[in-house]
């Protein structure tokens, strides 16, 4: 039995791995050699050696699965606190402008809960809890929309360059189009 490098197992896959290790423990207790166990369970001898060492040091508990290393999870209570802190705004947490970025939220989670998320993980966490990505409109506070519309209708047509007429032409700068 070969295991995928880097894990990535489901709970069922982890349980299957653990069953193999427990079968190895039964064979340790039966006095079988590492090579025999590895061949019977279709695993490497190095794995069997490692399991035997863990079994000698800590007993059966040494070969049991420790669960998924998985990604960090915040409890519902922590999520509620994070939402309250986000609603307070970036200024309350030391950022001068009023924008929350994923990197800032990641930093805030680390400060509040001593948990390290990636930027992508932070986005998935927020999305899972109903937060959405928003880009603030970049408009001056002094902007007068009525004046902008008036300028577009009255001034722009007067200052806009006239369109060139469509005629036969050449893309060459040095050779004019032949007629």
UniProtKB/TrEMBL annotation:
Ranges for domain Winged helix-turn helix: 97-155
InterPro entries named in the record: Homeodomain-like_sf, WH-like_DNA-bd_sf, Winged_HTH_dom
Gene3D superfamilies: Winged helix-like DNA-binding domain superfamily/Winged helix DNA-binding domain
Region feature Disordered, mapped onto this chain: 160-179
Annotated Polar residues bias: 169-179
UniProt protein name: Transposase
Organism of provenance: Streptomyces toyocaensis
């Amino acid at each position: 039995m070969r295991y995928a490098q880097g894990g990535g197992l489901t709970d069922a896959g982890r349980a299957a791995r653990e069953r193999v290790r427990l079968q190895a423990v039964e064979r340790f207790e039966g006095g079988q050699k590492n090579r025999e166990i590895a061949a019977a369970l279709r695993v490497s001898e190095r794995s069997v050696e490692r399991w035997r060492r863990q079994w000698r040091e800590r007993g059966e508990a040494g070969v049991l699965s420790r669960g998924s290393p998985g990604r960090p999870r915040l409890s519902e209570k922590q999520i509620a606190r994070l939402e309250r802190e986000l609603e307070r705004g970036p200024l309350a947490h030391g950022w001068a402008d009023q924008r929350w970025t994923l990197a800032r939220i990641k930093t805030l989670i680390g400060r509040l809960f001593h948990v390290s998320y990636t930027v992508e993980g932070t986005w998935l966490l927020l999305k899972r809890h109903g937060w959405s990505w928003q880009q603030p409109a970049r408009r001056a506070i002094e902007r007068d929309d009525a004046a902008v519309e008036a300028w577009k209708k009255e001034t722009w047509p007067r200052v806009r360059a006239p369109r060139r007429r469509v005629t036969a032409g050449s893309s060459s700068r040095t050779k004019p189009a032949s007629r």
